[in-house]
Design a protein that fits this description.
The chain has one domain. The protein has 6 helices and 2 strands. It has a two-stranded antiparallel sheet. A hairpin with a 2-residue loop joins strand 1 and strand 2. Helix 4 runs antiparallel to helix 6.
């Protein structure tokens, strides 16, 4: 078992990739991007708080923020992620754009809003679009 981002997981739960040194970190990033890109998931799990939320890695927006901004530190120097958990400069910069969009959202609205309030903002569509673009680049 390994510990990352407040969670324990078995290495066989993560598709191993020879292209990066830390495939489990790549998987966490991909999962965060999937959560940000999927409006149905957000409505069911983050907003409606369906009971299956505990079965998902990113059961709320706060967990996504911590994964992208704190655990993976994509907002500061995304190029450091190349080879570690992103494969190239395009992936690193696309993930950093998502981080910047989240940081702008938090700067404008603060950190104490509910998930429902964040997903209802005008800026949310940009976050979702950037997450989709980054995820498309990172398909293994």
């Amino acid at each position: 078992m390994r510990y990352f981002g407040g969670n324990y997981f078995a290495l066989n739960d993560v598709a191993m990739s020879a292209r990066v040194r830390f495939p489990q970190m790549r998987w966490f990033l991909q999962e965060a991007l999937r959560a940000l890109a999927d409006s149905e998931f957000q409505q069911l799990v983050w907003v409606a708080r369906r009971s299956d939320a505990e079965k998902r890695w990113h059961a709320n927006f706060d967990e996504v923020v911590h994964t992208i901004l704190d655990d993976l530190d994509l907002g500061r120097d995304p190029d450091k992620s190349i080879g570690s958990f992103t494969c190239n400069v395009d992936e690193a910069r696309a993930a950093a754009e998502v981080a910047c969009a989240i940081e702008r959202l938090l700067k404008k609205y603060g950190t104490r809003r509910s998930d429902a309030e964040y997903v209802a903002t005008r800026e949310w569509s940009e976050v979702m679009q950037l997450a989709r673009q980054a995820l498309d680049l990172m398909k293994d």
